[in-house]
Design brief:
Layout (H helix, E strand, L loop, with lengths): L1 H8 L1 E3 L10 E3 H10 L5 E2 L13 E2 L4 H8 L4 E3 L16 E8 L2 E10 L2 E9 L9 E7 L6 E7 L1 E2 L4 H7 L3 E4 H9 L2
Parallel strand pairs: 5-6, 8-11
Antiparallel strand pairs: 1-2, 3-4, 6-7, 7-8, 8-12, 9-10
């Protein structure tokens, strides 16, 4: 009993120490931390993109560099200002892009399914941090006389995209409204 008590009070290093984590915890907290540790081994996040595969694994801190080197065409570095994502919207289109903003990494997904356009921003990092961010998607006609926008909380990258869309936990706009605005561009 005394040894068990001592074992519970001793500080243990995170199992991801070899990947750069310097934190230490009492025994009961190590496992909890390990699942949200930024230093745990990560797989390349392109697996969320349709028909894209990559076998890279590394630390969270190396994801941006990897994406920029190997998947540059799917990346965008956001700097304060406006960013035009699409010019024309099709009734069955999808667009995915990794966005680097606020020293974080996100995956932006725009998907049209018949009469609805879905927009979702997934936070790549600890799931509990996803709701700290929100995003706004806005469509404006070329003479800036009409606009439609949707704003929503960012979702966790760990969530299934199909579930997010099915449950409506993302921005949703009627396809007809958006296509009318973008066709005028």
């Amino acid at each position: 009993e005394a040894l068990e008590k001592l074992a519970r009070e001793v500080n243990y290093p995170c199992p991801n120490q070899k990947y750069g984590c310097e934190e230490v915890f009492v025994h009961d907290k190590v496992r909890e931390h390990q699942h949200r540790c930024r230093h745990r081994p990560q797989t390349c996040p392109v697996y969320k993109l349709p028909n894209v595969k990559c076998s890279w694994t590394g630390s969270y801190d190396d994801i941006k560099q990897h994406l920029m080197e190997k998947h540059r065409g799917d990346c965008y570095e956001y700097v304060d200002g406006k960013y035009r994502v699409v010019k024309n919207i099709a009734a069955t289109m999808s667009l995915s892009q990794f966005v680097f903003a606020l020293n974080e990494i996100f995956l932006f997904r725009l998907q049209a399914n018949n009469d609805t356009l879905y927009a979702v921003l997934l936070y790549i990092g600890p799931a509990e941090n996803a709701a700290k961010y929100k995003y706004k998607v806005e469509f404006v006609n070329k003479d800036d006389t009409e606009r439609v926008a949707v704003m929503h909380l960012t979702r966790s990258f760990d969530e299934k995209l199909d579930d997010i869309l099915k449950l409506g936990n993302c921005g949703k706009l009627h396809y007809g409204v958006v296509s009318r605005l973008t066709d005028e561009m």
